[in-house]
Design goal:
Chains A, B: It comes from Azotobacter vinelandii (strain DJ / ATCC BAA-1303). Two copies of one chain form a homodimer. By secondary structure, the first copy, chain A, is an alpha/beta fold. The first copy, chain A, contains twelve helices and eight strands. The N and C termini of chain A lie far apart (37 Å).
């Protein structure tokens, strides 16, 4: 029941967040966002995605983003690379760490990326091979770990199977994502308890969505299970594609507020993080999804 | 670490919620709200407040509310009664259980109710005496238990002192309120751990505000401490007077979603609760503060 002393925040706002925002964002504002985040003390920022612009037009300028940012020493700037072509483009853009993703639900895999879970994993083999050859670390995402929009409940064992395969293929860290946000604290604990039988806890991360308001309770539950890496998006960037108008990514500010309250070290400056979120929300013309940011604004 | 099997929700929307809404609500809509909530399965509803209408004009028609509701057997309809005059009016209106409130912070007590903590407690003595004489149970609220807008941090020992006095005076249940929502999970646990040295856990309740997004994590932390009564307001009614535009009360729907996920029994129907919240938000012309309600709406 002792909590981790240090937690690493994986900031996914510039990628997972912006990719799900309705309004496109210009290159300069993307670069500014990433630089604001590194200045706030984030040590791991997912800054782009190297996929076909036909699939994800919002990420078409990821190479330019990587060329434009001021690289702060000690900060990892990562990108999503679903295939070898994407990996090679990322490598050319100077990306230091990449990520691949698979679903824990067969239906979600079929509907989201048009292939089975096994096929998606097979596609990553060349990416992992190339990454190994170039000394690039690969992070693995598993989606729908606490529920699927098509199948409903997802068994922890099913998640563990996919996570194990990604880990065996060479992913150094596996992020378990509650894509639709239906997970609750007891199920989050049970999931990590099962997956940690096969993968060391220090190689696991929690990626919770706040669609049903459960994200921070799930984080606290995961901390109690010894999980010490969490994904979040500044200002809660990115909505929920499965529930229009609802929240998606957990806001990094709200996560940091919890961790600060628990006395857990992150190296992140809350005020600067809030300022980064307020700025990007003003540019996007959207509400700030962080309750901490809204409370601070109202109290000032 | 075993969680309670049954949790009682104390619905404070019709009182604590509406009292902090900008738009006044007509009598018929108040009555309808209370009846919707009892129909949804809530077993404890704080339906009004017997205070001077000069202080709280929104609650001036509480006697009419109590006269208008359909009393469902097994449901407790309670009211706030800060003094003997209020208690007598509540008694006349057929209120079955009343509540008194004190602050854990001296500055808050002075600024909020214009007297010291000790003076406020002394004022409740006649209320408690009269309640005992009439066989009416009294619930005690303690505010600012995890932070004060004027003093900042509040020591658990300070909270325990006020809670003990209320308990010793005859309050059957003490609700500990994080009035400004700055509390985090570790501090919530530590607080209950300290207060439970003096008051049995089954006589304690948690009242968390979601201003900084921490309410559900605090609930989960409290459940781990054996707390089994939680206050919440349907649709998150009531803003935060200390941060304009920010969230106040935890939404009952979001709390129920967590409890359902944990397999904890409450007797409440989530769909009917959501419908009650959607209706009152439409009448008030306000956004629904429940993330669960918003997610369900977007997913339909």
């Amino acid at each position: 029941m002792t909590l981790p002393r240090h937690v690493r925040l994986v900031e996914v706002g510039p990628r997972d967040g912006l990719q799900n925002e309705k309004r496109p964002l210009g290159l300069a504002d993307k670069v500014r966002l990433v630089d604001d985040l590194s200045a706030a003390g984030l040590e791991y920022i997912e800054a782009g995605s190297f996929v076909s612009p036909k699939w994800v037009p919002q990420m078409a300028d990821s190479a330019e983003v990587f060329a434009g940012i001021r690289r702060k020493p000690g900060v990892v700037y990562a990108a999503l690379t679903p295939n070898l072509k994407g990996f090679e483009a990322a490598l050319e853009a100077g990306v230091e760490e990449v990520a691949v993703f698979a679903a824990a639900s067969e239906s979600f895999s079929q509907k989201n990326i048009d292939c089975s879970i096994a096929e998606s994993l097979a596609r990553f083999v060349p990416v992992l091979d190339a990454a190994r050859a170039h000394g690039v670390r690969v992070r693995g995402y598993v989606s729908c770990v606490l529920g699927c929009p098509y199948e409903g409940e997802v068994a922890p064992r099913q998640v563990a199977d996919v996570a194990r395969e990604l880990f065996a293929m060479g992913c150094h860290e596996i992020s378990l994502g509650d894509t639709i946000g239906t997970g609750t604290a007891g199920k989050a604990r049970a999931l990590f308890e099962v997956v940690a039988r096969y993968i060391p806890r220090e190689r696991l991360a929690g990626h919770f969505h706040d669609t049903y308001g459960q994200a921070l309770a799930n984080v606290y539950a995961s901390l109690l299970e010894g999980i010490a890496v969490f994904d979040a998006a500044v200002a809660g960037l990115g909505g929920c594609p499965y529930a229009r108008g609802a929240s998606g990514n957990l806001a990094s500010e709200d996560l940091l507020y919890l961790l600060n309250g628990l006395g857990i070290h992150t190296g992140i400056d809350l005020d600067r993080l809030i300022a980064a979120g307020e700025r990007i929300c003003a540019v996007l013309g959207r509400d700030n999804g962080s309750r901490v940011a809204r409370a601070r604004r109202g109290a000032s």
